[in-house]
Amino acid sequence: MKIRSLAALCLLLAGCRQGLYNQQKVRPYRESTLFADGSGMRPIPAGTVARGHLRDDKALYAGVGPDGKLLNELPVPLSKQLLLRGQERFNIYCSPCHGRTGNGVGMIVRRGFKKPASFHIDRLKNERVGYFFDVMTHGFGQMSSYASQVSAGDRWAIAAYLRALQLSQAAPAAMLSDADRKELEGAPRAHELSAVGEGDVTAMPQNLRPDRGPVETSGGNPEKARGTPHK
């Protein structure tokens, strides 16, 4: 029995070769004598495209048509889901500067940052939809590129939502349903909101104050926070 066990152990040890593990190979960031420049890592050949990143659809990824001009129509189907996605992305990435209504008075503008143009001026209302995609992709003026933060699909969703936002600020009441008209009549007017500074949250009507949670004021009475949000 011992002889059999010993024979089996010898066979196992004979199979444990380290040839592949110990073979010569170039590790990342190590030098190599194989190449003239002494570097083991090689530069990527020009024109190399990662799998899944060909992006040969110029309309979708560059916002231009066959004529090389910015698109005047969306290269993706317009749907409610697209607009909702655009609204979500706009509120996250764009509203800090441009404001949620696109009037150019976002939160950081109220803190002293340069005011961008309102989306509701004639020049931007008459711009091609591809223009907004192009600005998000490459940046413009003090605005940097958002291509690394917002995907091409989401940039088109934002561009579509911008069109809806522009229409919402100038749409005739006749386009609304009876229920929407009643809701609009009960909504605060623009001057009521703009007259209240960000710091004067307690001066706003109760139903319009941002939900910041109760804090203790100097008088010891819990009110809506003035200043930093309650966490």
List its salient traits:
9 helices; mainly alpha; two-stranded antiparallel ribbon; disordered C terminus; 2 strands; 231 residues; elongated; Cytochrome Bc1 Complex, Chain D, domain 2
Short summary of the structure?
It is built from nine helices and two strands, in the order αααααααααββ. By secondary structure, the protein is mostly helical.
CATH names the topology of the domain at 59-170 as Cytochrome Bc1 Complex, Chain D, domain 2
CATH superfamily of the domain at 59-170: Cytochrome c-like domain
Written as H for each helix and E for each strand, in order along the chain, the element string is: HHHHHHHHHEE
Structural class: mainly alpha
CA-based shape = elongated
Into which percentage range does the β-strand content fall? under 5%
Side by side, the strands of the main sheet go 1-2
Please count the helical segments: 9
Characterize the largest beta sheet: strand count, sense, and whether it forms a barrel: 2 strands, antiparallel
Q: What top-tier CATH class of the domain at 59-170 fits best? A: Mainly Alpha
